[in-house]
Automatic annotation (TrEMBL):
The lineage of its organism: Bacteria, Bacillati, Bacillota, Clostridia, Lachnospirales. This is WD40 repeat domain-containing protein.
Length: 354
């Protein structure tokens, strides 16, 4: 009987140990936050959790980069090739890039890479422009769907969309038909294009929304006396940040948000300058906002979107000058990474949700 009791106790202890192990696994934190940037004549992929370089991609002597876009499974980089060698200079410790004039560019392409910066494909934009006898999109900024299958350009009159799988172009004029001039477009998911701009003759108001490529329906909203600065998206939400007023050193404190699942919009009110650096959480419950009034520190807050109350606040102090660049989701949305630049490159501080 004693042997049976002892065995049962051992089994219980073993099971308890297994339960703890599972709990530890569930709470395991993200070890990699990869960021692709340019440094001199190289693309550099760095892990911001330990500041180690994961991989590099060397550019040719006549090449330079344009936009860098992160995809679900890698990266997309705009690369220009000039008719002369491009020589970057280092002035007072900072790299000054030698960028060619439009007349000097002989080739434009978009290269796709996987998560470890291995090249997977190249789209020759110069060749596509010649085939179409249309150079409107050659030097125009572009956006790429998260799955990498679609590339879209805002050419002014139309949205020009190229499907990498079918090798075909499609033109869309639904935005301009609504008397909207889109200043910026970005994919929100693989089949929607988020945008902001102006409607009609009003330049004080911002018109924003998204265009559904599948059903060709457009969803638009107006924010009165509001000047948009950047357009942001995740898998479900679209949100806009405004810019800091250099005279008043503040911003509107308003962050317009669209839920693409419901098609509805709402406005989140923050503390002045915070609206210039803010993002909604993946579950749509909170707003994470960073404010910087001192060059050697910044503050991060977590807001409850329903009542706009501050749930958590944390200040980050440094010995040298820093600048907040971005707020990203990490650890499956349980915490957020505050990416900031220093004289040694980009770094990251983790902000855990309450």
């Amino acid at each position: 009987m004693k042997k049976i009791i002892v065995c049962m106790i051992c089994i219980c202890i073993a099971l308890a140990g297994c339960g703890k192990e599972k709990s530890v696994v569930k709470e395991k934190k993200q070890k990699e936050v990869l960021r692709l940037t340019t440094k001199g004549k190289e693309l550099v992929l760095k892990n911001l959790m330990n500041y180690k370089v994961v991989n590099k991609y060397k550019l040719g002597k006549k090449q330079c980069t344009g936009s860098i876009i992160e995809l679900d499974q890698g990266y997309c980089v705009q690369i220009y090739e000039a008719n002369r060698e491009l020589k970057n200079q280092v002035i007072q410790g900072a790299v000054v890039e030698d960028t060619p004039d439009e007349s000097e560019i002989v080739k434009a392409s978009i290269k796709l890479f996987d998560k470890k910066l291995k090249e997977t494909d190249t789209v020759d934009i110069t060749r596509l422009a010649k085939e179409r006898k249309d150079e409107d999109f050659l030097m125009t900024s572009f956006t790429v769907s998260p799955d990498g299958t679609k590339i879209a350009w805002n050419t002014g009159e139309n949205i020009l969309c190229y499907n990498r799988e079918t090798k075909k172009f499609t033109k869309y004029n639904q935005i301009t038909k609504k008397d909207i001039t889109a200043e910026n477009i970005i994919f929100a998911g693989n089949d929607k294009l988020a945008f902001y701009g102006t409607k009609g003759e009003s330049e004080e108001d911002t018109c924003y929304g998204y265009f559904d490529l599948k059903n060709k329906k457009i969803h638009t909203f107006i924010e009165k006396k509001y000047e948009a600065f950047s357009l942001n998206v995740d898998k479900r939400y679209i949100w806009i940040n405004d810019g800091e007023n250099p005279n008043t050193k503040t911003a509107s404190g308003k962050v317009p948000v669209i839920d693409t699942k419901t098609g509805k919009n709402h406005l989140v009110h923050l503390d002045g300058i915070e609206s210039a650096k803010a993002r909604i959480t993946e579950d749509g419950k909170y707003m994470i906002a960073a404010s910087q009034t001192d060059e050697k520190s910044f503050r991060v807050r977590q807001y409850d979107i329903k009542n706009e109350k501050v749930l958590k606040e944390k200040k980050y102090d440094f010995h040298k000058s820093v600048h907040v660049n971005d707020i990203i989701s990490i650890n499956n949305g349980k915490s957020y990474g505050i990416i900031y630049s220093t004289d040694q490159g980009d770094k990251l501080e983790e902000f855990e949700l309450r």
